[in-house]
Amino acid sequence: MRSGRLADLTRVSTDTLRHYEHIGLLARPPRTAGNYRDYAPSCQERVELIQRALRIGFSLAELKRILALRDQGGAPCRNVRELLRSKIVDVNRQIKDLRVLRTELNRLSKKWDKRLSSTKPGQQAKLLERMPWLDKAAVPHRLLPIGNTRGR
Questions:
Q1: Could you tell me if residue 128 is inside a domain?
Q2: How far is residue 73's CA from residue 83's CA, in Å, rounded to a whole number?
Q3: Distance CA 78, CA 136 (A)
């Protein structure tokens, strides 16, 4: 099947299919006489597997290692399970960090409300200019915008 058809069936772009080929997640398909890619029907299953794994947090690099081992006849199942365990730990840490960030943002919001209540209409409150640097201990740097490097 041509790349457009495979892309439609798997709900990815043809660029994504070419990228998967380029990084080795999909084997390079043979070409038709008109030089179009001619994917085997089994490629649909492979792309869908990749998409499902990406949705739950697996990276393309991880999938490349897993699928390469599987393609060589190996059984990466225990490794896949360990990777999932690691992702659960990461998600739990992110949830904790986001709760801390929410608390800090709520505190900041209250400070801003107080400042705005004492600011005359049409007058600048300079909220961003007077915003304190969020303590990196209180808000992990991975949750702060990339441009915020002060205090790190």
A1: yes
A2: 20
A3: 37
